[in-house]
Amino acid sequence: LSNLSFSDVCYSSSVSPKMLADFLSEQKWIPYNLCVLQMFCFGAFADVVCVMLSVMAYDRYVAICTPLLYTVTMSRRVCAQLVAIVYIQSLLYSAVFTYCTIHLSFCKSNTINHFFCDFPPLLAISTSDTTINEIVMFTYSSCVLGFSIVTVLLSYSYIITTILRMKSAKGRHKAFSTCASHLTAVAMFYGTLLFMYFRPSSSYSMDSDKVASVFYTVVIPMLNPIIYSLRN
């Protein structure tokens, strides 16, 4: 939970200050080096949040379905290894995408139709052939998001089955309350990503993308602490 909060703060902070400053300024611009840094940080920590939510779903599966083995299965060492894997793959992913993006040419326009420097808006204004970039981005994003969603769905299918088998109403209520906050965070974050990247091209709109971007870069990180505190 602390790593999720840290990631929320980092990826929101990589976008929010500059975005708010642009809202209050007539001239909306960003230095090239800062744009690259913003793109890298946002991509890395957004990926951390995405995968971390699936790791938390697995943690809840172990806690509810195999409680006697929890201290062994989710020991401090295992948790540290899972967190390390999440951060390493996310940083590598963002580093590769950022490296590929900065080697594109931007000869015709340097105006991004977005609130911040993100990979898709930069690919849209590039004068280079972005086919490889788009294939790599779509493939990796689909794999990460698909893996995360499948992990969450499988974990909660076992969790719900286990809860329904409980004879104690108090036990069922306690188990459901343990998962409710996480399910809410998962639904908001993954729902927004699915809306942005997996909807028909005929319904694509940059304006709707901007609204969705503000939602998952500013609103969701603000709501997560409130959501997770409801259980207490």
Automatic annotation (TrEMBL):
State the protein's name.
Answer: Olfactory receptor family 5
Annotated signal sequence range: none
Per UniProt, subcellular location reads as: Membrane
Q: How does this chain sit within the bilayer?
A: Multi-pass membrane protein
Domain of life (superkingdom): Eukaryota
Q: What are the record's GO terms for cellular component?
A: membrane
SUPFAM superfamilies given in the database record: Family A G protein-coupled receptor-like
Domain G-protein coupled receptors family 1 profile: residue ranges: 1-228
Which Pfam families does the annotation name?
Answer: 7tm_4 (PF13853)
Q: Keywords of this protein's UniProt record, alphabetized?
A: G-protein coupled receptor, Membrane, Receptor, Transducer, Transmembrane, Transmembrane helix
Q: Which GO terms describe its molecular function?
A: G protein-coupled receptor activity; olfactory receptor activity
Residue spans crossing the bilayer? 29-58, 79-106, 135-159, 180-199, 211-230
